## 1
Amino acid sequence: MGLALETIVGYNDSLTGSTTYDALTPNSNQSFTVRYYQDGTSAYLEDIWLAFAAHPGLISIKSPRLHDDVLGINLAATPLGAGSGSADFNPQTVLPGFIQQKLYSSDVLSVTVNGTASDKAVGVFNVRYENLGGVNARLYHWNEIQPNIANIVGIEVTPTASGTVGVLGSGVALNSTTSRFKANVDYAWLGYQTSIPVAAIVMNGVDLGNLNVGGPGDWDIDDTGDFFIQQSITYQTAHIPVVNSLNVGGTFVSIADIAASTAPTVTLLMAELKNRMGTPVNP
């Protein structure tokens, strides 16, 4: 099976404030068009996160093949802390776990936001493919990973966001800060934490089908510390990425943020596995 998980990041660095929604721009090498996937299989929109720089706003994901092409999936978020004007709560989950939207092969999604004039917005969402031609990401169920864990390890990396709001910065290799991986050993990526909140944290490499895989750079470790375990259990599907240590030099971690050039310390919670994982076969 050509399993694939892709984290899509879109941005707008100056909203118009109009009643008409403003388009988000997808990151380089990404698109809001659903990838063509194999007949007889499915793809799903699974999670949506949203960040605004200073004011509340809304996101709309729509197409004529979804519920409607007026506003479609229309969700709200605010960065503001209760009783304050500070932007404390970026990013926010606006489509929580257990809720999926079936997507249609090659469908063109319209992804737009509405907010205050001159505000900035970053929208992030995950799409999971059961069988994407040319890709076979190493994704596994928690019940496959858990009994195979030998040791837990925290791997620190220090990626920097782009100088342009919402754009993924240059990636840093998994072994860029420390080279403690054991030779030719599989490692499962269970979750992560960040020293400061950012809009999105993604990993990209051959073991992931050369697609961006990740989630929100939330301040709360309860949301991200076991992020991929939660995804696997929630959706009862293969969600936990596995990377072989031979590939860590070519596996990169990147971030995008609602502010330019932020530089958090990101700690990746990984599990050294006793045995190498076989080819994923169960979506």
Note: The two ends are 7 Å apart (CA to CA).
## 2
Amino acid sequence: MSNIVLDVQNVSLAFDGLRVLNRATFSLESGSFLGMIGPNGAGKSTLLKLIAGLLHPDNGSISVDNRLLTTYSRTELARSVGYVPQNVDLNFPFTVYEVVKMGRYAHHPGMFSIDPGGRDAVFAALKWMDLLDIKDRSYMQLSGGEKQRAIIASALAQEPFLLLLDEPTSALDLKHQQSIYKMLKKLTETEQMTILIVTHDINLAAQFCSRLILLNRGDIVRDGLPDDVLKFPVIQEVYGVKVYIDVNPFTDSLYILPYDTQTDTVIVNEKREKDIRR
């Protein structure tokens, strides 16, 4: 019997009469690595906030670990679900260690104390995020990428079984983008953590995520394996740009490039359809 960690059923939401999500429905099993993609304004971040309990749907239901989200207290939810928003900035001179330690608050509330085993969880998260060497540095002195890694480490220190991340690598260099996706993939495989990541980087999502959901104007357009979601006509229609899709010979995953010349790309894409796996 499958272990459903997250179940989203017919979730809709509107702001000021404008529909943002329309009957979104999907579920995630333990150990899944789901990438949520789509253009700006598609509803990706809004859906993530609904799952994190920061917003409430107009219709539909969300269940975490076979329990309705509405029945969780904030502390209970923090022990189960980690959430990393797009932009977090702290204006207090906490050290990196102290910022990551904040992730243990749901397990043992208190600014200066920590729960048994919490210290090990904090140091493990620091190690995952390659922050051990700067753990005593002030958070305010960090680069944008280092701050983002510290916030992700704080979420990992919560030891959630469901991790939600909104554009977690947007401020990172290529090395740390790759290392974080590799780390997230490993967490799903070794710890059975379930991860849902919102990203505009389709190529990283195609390389590392085991499943993709493509959103457009509040609707789930495609849901499935990367090869099934990343189709020429679908991507070109949703994003409104001509694209070239091929297989990366080093990763064996699909990659997508925008194609902005005046040449008709239909011929090119039809030829490539015969060469890449479908």
Note: The chain has a mean pLDDT of 89.
## 3
Amino acid sequence: MKTLAEIASHVGGSLHGDGSVQIERIVHPSLAQGNSDLALILSPNAIRFLEKAKVLNVVLPAGLEGVPVPNRIVVERPRLVLAKLTQLFERPVYIPSGAHPTAVIDPTATIGKDVCIGPNCCVGPNSKIGDRSRLAANVTVGAEVEVGCDGLIHAGTYIGDRSKIGDRVIIQPNATIGGDGFAFVTPETGSVESVRATGEVRHFNTNLVRIFSLGNVVIEDDVEIGAGACIDRGTLGETRIGEGSKLDNLVQVGHNVTIGKNCLIVSQVGLGGSAKVGDRAVVGGQAGLPDHMTIGNDAVVHAQAGITSNVPERSVVIGSPAQPKRDFLEREVYLKKLPRLSKQLKELKQQIALLSEKLGA
């Protein structure tokens, strides 16, 4: 438990009220039940929950100081405070200390200090697990893998051979790091090649020859990988996820992809082979980036955008096919006018027909 005074100091807020109150949990204002709960209000819209709930302690944005709650912590950026509070009151995943008896660790593997390895884990030959890293149940670490310090690898994750994982990396359940890339070639010209060259299907995929993946995956420090995400290893080189980037659940990263630093890649995004995402870019859910294309630094790609050409840095694109947001909104305005314009055109045609009939008479 933490006192209100300690919490206010931790989040950099201004305390009004009794700082000695002990707080046991952080709650949505509608769920507050007593003096040990601290309600968090992220926006003025949440004020309405205070009327029915038993809120005695609250964190709220500056400008709402008049809220009738005895103890208040006033902050400038509530969502950032949410991050700090959840960190302060985190309930870590349970992983027993040491290596579980059912874990299989190759004799040539190197295990650092204070490492936790859960039930049914497997650590392959010549792999290294850094100090204080934690592997939950059923994690598979292949051969010659390097996992840095203070990592957290959740249950069911697979990390393929030769992958390199940095420090403080979090990988959510059932992610696959370092699987083979999706790469095939036809002995003769195939359908896709003929479409690119002529716009028509003039050749056929009578045989598909596998291109093996000989490279690896490099995940830099402070990266987070969502549940069920798949990151394919490079064909000859590496697939790289830059420092501080965050990938949501079910993201697909193809072979040889490079993602820059501090990127946000939202759920179900697909990045084709050899695609590049610049630093600090944001890619919305279900957006798709074809192979060999680029998203520039600081660009924002809206959800479900279908990218067909390189996205310049600091640009905002939306729609399918993706286009600059300004152009998209302008097109939407015109589309909404089409029914009225169609009706006016029909009326004009009728008037012209009547006028032509009179002139002809």
Note: The two ends are 95 Å apart (CA to CA).
## 4
Amino acid sequence: MASIKLKGDTSGEVTISAPAVAGTTTLELPATSSTLATQNSLGVRNLIINGDMRVAQRGTSVAGLNTTINGYYTVDRFVTIFNTGGTANSYGTFTQSQDTDVPTGQGFANSLKMDCTSASVGLVAGSLVLLQHRLEGQNLQHLKKGTSNAESITLSFWVKSNKTGTYITTLDDNDNTRSISKPYTINSANTWEKKTITFDGDTSGVLGNDNGSSLVLNLWLVVGTNYTSGTSQELWNTKTTANLAYGQTVNLADSTSNYINITGVQLEVGDTATPFEHIPFDMNLLRCQRYFWKTFPTSVAPAQNTATSNMLFAGIRADVLAGLDFTVEMRAAPTLISYNPYASNSSFRVYGGGDHTVVGIVADTKRIMWINLGSPFTPPNGVHGHITASAEL
């Protein structure tokens, strides 16, 4: 009989025997720090979408971020949150970009960079800047949160900054108003470092089995005393504002030389960080398109008058009502915006027929939208224009 030995870490080894075949020998798979089940788990281990920062449908760089308007600016699925605390520019001004600075030899091509371009005029109690990733409850049921079998969750990521010191990362349970915060330290300036943080399972608070924002990962960059004046909350408890960023010593907005790069963000079940789960770009893009979709080419940022043409449909009826399918089913019926490739307005350009105002774009379902130009054009001319659809959490 020939055999294959599968070696784990502390659980011994399993031998699979089969009839001997001439010329074969014993194959031993080396032990690792993770279990065999973890190494070969099927499906998607990483709860984070686009953790390698490869997809940036909205654009690769946005300057002048210093408003209280929170939003998605560059890299998909990572939303930037600002709060002034009532004082203008109390958190500085930033340029956010999809950067090519990455840790060597880890298989990454991009990182998300926050670069301070105007220092804060004086950090006040309510000031904050943070990066968030929001997760649907229906994708988290295997965490068994709110039961006696609640699973631990491990966060790992690569980070580089000129600002050494203690930073805070938080998980918020939006369904039950609970949170847990853990510190990490950047030890060496201008050096890529890998961080690993394990959050205990929470036996209180079941997450909703729906498409809502149940769990939120927060990476704190700038924080006022409203969020640091409490006590350490390294175990799950009722969400208390003063505890959220307790222990953070770094203010990324106190100098225009400050920056931070982040990539390889992975959140997974268990108390061990496994190697980052690299998936093909097309799969990553499709997952992002559940939340944001556009008719522009992937490399073109949505904007009016881009000279990037797209024929959405050819005219076949005078009432000019047409339906388009989204590439994937979106999380919810999205908010739609129309773009004119040839002018700075939201009209569509009819080939040979000028601009036609878009009277209505309706997301009839998560799968299809309806477009009405409001006035007829002569078939068979084509209608050129672009659309973005957002169903973000």
Note: The two ends are 56 Å apart (CA to CA).
